[in-house]
Write a structure and sequence with these properties.
It is built from 12 helices and 11 strands. It is of the alpha+beta class. It has a 5-stranded mixed beta barrel with strand order 1-2-3-5-4. The radius of gyration is 38 Å and the shape is elongated.
């Protein structure tokens, strides 16, 4: 093989419709890159770079030239609010995807992207992670995960790279996560059924709360049951500040109950603002005898509701034996208010 002169090389390139100027440019860049690699004592690839590797290296310097195409539009949204179109001279084997990078943006009749290549949006996070602006939205308690979770949204130069990514909220705002955990899991009881088996205080407190609620309906007063704020304050006082999720809570609870078996158990005194005077089984019986049969009585304090007051469930076969007068008597605990009303 003999060495061709520059003129012969240019002649050969023209015959094959290759631009001699572009080849010179490529040689210059290749030589510069070789020099940089040699100066840094980097190793050369033993095999050609893959599409992914090549475009990731390009992205490192061309993050301002990325574009995202919404489904309904034929225009790409670019960095910092710009919009550009695919250059009409861009001949691709297949249409570019929703995420692209352009070698250059050129403005003629309108802004065009030239030298277009498909990219995977996950590469943007890998290459430009330090430039992503992240927001955490909608923190909420998830009983299945037993933790407070928020959705992360990341933008690069105004373009949404990803959204709806689940993130533990206690890493960002442990105080808010702790409050949400106490309110939703411990006060409201929004937990998986197996929690009641592993954490017996939950079932005991719910049972006690239901009993006191029953007193509230019987006495027809709204101030018997402690409100949720006071129950929250009870748990808040007992739990250490670093308890922000179900996992950390269970570990702490197991260790502490070994020393204090009564831990986190509410008492009747804590639940009631005052004793509901006179609310006894004799004054408000669970069973009322009608037509020679004991019938179940239930109580509800909800003025306007059809079941407000006392409701007695009478079996159908006893119905014609029930005295209308007996139904007027109500129960002993309600007679005082009825007499006053009369």
């Amino acid at each position: 093989s003999h060495k061709l002169s520059n003129r012969q090389q240019e002649q050969r390139l023209r015959e094959h419709f290759v631009s001699a100027r572009r080849v010179r440019e490529w040689r210059d860049i290749h030589t510069q890159l070789h020099t940089v690699v040699a100066e840094h004592k980097w190793r050369l690839n033993t095999q050609p770079a893959s599409y992914e590797e090549l475009h990731k290296s390009m992205l490192a310097g061309l993050l301002g030239n990325i574009g995202f195409k919404p489904e309904e539009e034929d225009v790409y949204l670019g960095a910092r609010g710009i919009k550009f179109h695919r250059h009409p001279g861009a001949h691709l084997r297949k249409k570019p995807g929703r995420w692209i990078v352009c070698a250059e943006l050129v403005e003629t009749t309108r802004l065009f992207g030239r030298g277009i290549a498909n990219i995977d949006p996950t590469w943007l996070e890998e290459v430009g992670g330090h430039l992503l602006k992240k927001q955490l939205l909608d923190p909420h308690w998830e009983k299945k995960a037993a933790e407070v979770v928020a959705f992360e949204r990341a933008t690069l130069y105004g373009l949404v790279v990803y959204s709806g990514r689940r993130k533990p909220f206690d890493k960002v705002d442990p105080q808010a996560a702790r409050e949400m955990f106490i309110r939703q899991a411990l006060v409201a009881g929004d937990v998986l059924p197996e929690w009641h088996k592993r954490l017996p205080f939950l079932a005991a407190n719910e049972k006690l709360t239901a009993k006191v609620e029953e007193l509230e309906h019987k006495s027809r007063r709204q101030d018997v049951l402690v409100d949720e704020e006071l129950i929250y304050a009870f748990y808040d006082q007992q739990l250490p500040q670093d308890i922000t999720s179900g996992r950390s809570f269970e570990q702490w609870y197991r260790q502490e109950t070994a020393k204090r078996p009564e831990l986190l158990l509410l008492t009747r005194d804590e639940l009631m603002r005052h004793e509901a005077a006179g609310i006894t089984p004799a004054a408000f019986p669970k069973m009322i005898r009608l037509g020679g049969v004991d019938c179940q009585a239930s109580y509800l304090h909800e003025p306007g509701d059809a079941r407000d007051g006392v409701t007695v469930a009478v079996p159908l076969f006893v119905l014609n034996q029930v005295s209308e007068e007996r139904c007027e008597w109500l129960v002993p605990g309600m007679l005082k208010d009825k007499i006053q009303a009369l």
